[in-house]
Amino acid sequence: MRTIEADRIGGTVYDLILKASYEAGEDVLSALQAARDKESSTLGCSILDQILENDRIAASEHIAICQDTGVCVIFMDIGQDVHITGGDLNETLCSAVRKAYTDGYLRKSMVDDPLYDRLNTKDNTPPVVHTRIVPGEKIDITVIPKGFGSENASAVRMLAPAAGETGVIDFVTEAVQSKGANACPPLIIGIGIGGTMESAAIMAKRMTARPLNTWNADPRYQALEEKILQRVNALGIGPAGVGGNCTALKVNIETAPTHIAGMPVAVNICCHAARHARTVL
User: Fold this and answer.
1) Long-range pairs, 208-211, Cβ under 8 A, ≥24
2) 153 with 139, same domain?
3) Residues 122 and 244 in one domain
4) Where in the sequence is the domain holding 113, given as residue range(s)?
C-alpha cells in the first residue's frame, strides 16, 4: 500500500491546469506545422501561421492560448494499492481548480445551474472528474481545459450494428460538416465506439488528449482513423472555416465491448487549442 497526500494531488492538478492552458504540446505544434506545409489555401496558410504564432506567444509569456479556458475535465486512473490521505479528494480538486484559474488569470466560465439560474460560480468550479481504479500504486492524471466552441460540436448516436464502418464514417463526417466551422478548426476528433451511451462519450473525450503521433493499435481501427480524416478534410471547411484542405489534424479512436443489439458512437470535437497535460504520481 502506498500513501499519497491529497495536497500533493492538488498541487499536481494546479500545475497541470496552468501548463495545459499556456503550452500547446509538441505533438500539436508538429501537426499544425505539418498542416501548414500541406495547406493549399493561401488564407488557410495565413490562419495556421497566426495559430502557431499565438501558441508561441502564449508559451513564452504564460498567457492563455485561448480566451475560453473551458471546463476543467480531470481524468484520474488511481492504483488500487494507493491510499489517499489528508483531505477529501473532490474538495482538493476543486481547490486546485479555484487557485489555478485565479492565479493564472484564466477566464471563469462555469455556471451553477444549467437551465434556470445560470449564475457564474466565479472560480470555474466544479471540475468534471472521471476516475478509474486500476492495478498498481500510482495515480495517472490528465487535465483537459475543454472549451465549449468545440464541445458544442460534439455528438452521440446509437447506431445499429448493421450500420457498419460506413455508418460510423458518415456519422462523424456529418457531425463535423454541421458544426465544424464553429469549432475553431483545424480539429482533433476523438471517437468512442462501443460500450454504452455514456462510456462512448467518455472514451471520445479521452481520445482528444491522445498524442497526435500515435494510432490505434488495431490495424482496422488505424485504417478507420485515416479514412475518417480523409473524409473530413475533403469537406473543405479549412482552418478557421475559411476553406482549405486542413479541417482536422487527427482522428483518434477508442473502442469497448458492447451489447449485441447496438453500436454506440460518440464524437468529441477539440479545437486547434488542444489543451491537455498529463503526469503520473
Assistant:
1) 208/144, 208/146, 208/252, 208/268, 208/269, 208/270, 208/274, 208/276, 209/75, 209/142, 209/144, 209/274, 209/276, 209/278, 210/252, 210/254, 211/25, 211/27
2) no
3) no
4) 2-22+65-146
Q: Give CA angle at 93 (90, 96), nearest 5°.
A: 150
The confidence score (pLDDT) of residue 242 equals 96
Asked if the structure places residue 31 within a domain, the reply is no
- Provide the mean pLDDT of the chain: 97
Q: Are 160 and 168 in contact (CB under 8 A)?
A: no
Domain count within the chain: 2
Per residue in 126-161, pLDDT (tens digit) is: 999 999 999 999 999 999 999 999 999 999 999 999
Assess if residue 141 is contained within a domain: yes
Give the end of a domain, one of 126, 146, 166: 146
Write the pLDDT tens digit of every residue in 33-55: 999 999 999 999 999 999 999 99
Here the cell at position 116 is 434556470
Contact call for residues 280 and 139 (beta carbons, < 8 A): yes
Entry pTM: 0.96
Q: Using an 8 Å Cβ cutoff, are 119 and 113 in contact?
A: yes
- For 50-200, list the strands marked E by DSSP: 71-79, 82-85, 128-134, 139-146, 155-159, 187-195
Give the tens place of pLDDT for each residue, 92-117: 999 999 999 999 999 999 999 999 99
Sign of the dihedral defined by the CA atoms of residues 223, 224, 226, 231, in that order: positive
- Residue 185 amino acid letter: P
